[in-house]
């Protein structure tokens, strides 16, 4: 069984998850800032918007920005945890393989006759 190919795939998936996590964090920060500004500067004379703004708290833009940022932060942490989890499983597999290989090699060796 070729393990190196699956290990390389899992490592590339882990690296990809890290990249996606950082991209999600950057997009969340940008979305939080622009979303907070957009909601803060919405004209109140529009009927549909004023009904939405009436339901928001007093600091509607800031609250929305904070909630968007927190959602992005949670997604960032989850993606980084998945990437680290893959690395932990790969380390466990590597350690298990390195420990079991010498024992298997020693069990397969035959002691010559007359040698104690």
Structural class: mainly alpha
Determine the N-to-C terminus distance.
36 Å
- If you compute it from the alpha carbons, what radius of gyration comes out, rounded to the nearest whole angstrom? 27 Å
* Mean pLDDT figure: 79
Residue windows where pLDDT falls under 50 for at least 5 positions: none
Largest sheet: none
H/E element string? Answer: HHH
Count of discrete alpha- or pi-helical segments spanning 4 or more residues: 3
Q: Report the strand count.
A: 0
What overall form do the CA principal axes indicate? rod-shaped
Percent helix range: over 70%
Provide a concise account of the structure shown.
This protein has 116 residues and is mainly α. The protein contains three helices and no strands.
Any overview of this molecule?
The protein is mostly helical and 116 residues long. It has a domain at 30-93. The chain contains 3 helices and no strands. The mean pLDDT is 79.
Main attributes?
83% helix, mainly alpha, rod-shaped, 116 residues, 3 helices
SSE topology sketch:
Elements: H1 3-40, H2 47-55, H3 60-108
Helix pairs in contact: 1-3
């Amino acid at each position: 069984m070729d393990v190196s190919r699956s290990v390389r795939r899992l490592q590339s998936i882990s690296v990809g998850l890290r990249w996606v996590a950082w991209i999600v964090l950057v997009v969340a920060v940008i979305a939080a800032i622009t979303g907070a500004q957009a909601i803060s500067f919405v004209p109140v004379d529009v009927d549909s918007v004023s009904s939405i703004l009436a339901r928001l708290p007093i600091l509607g833009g800031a609250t929305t920005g904070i909630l968007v940022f927190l959602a992005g932060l949670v997604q960032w942490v989850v993606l980084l945890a998945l990437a680290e989890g893959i690395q932990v499983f790969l380390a466990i597999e590597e350690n298990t393989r390195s420990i079991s290989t010498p024992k298997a090699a020693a069990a397969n060796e035959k002691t010559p006759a007359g040698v104690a």
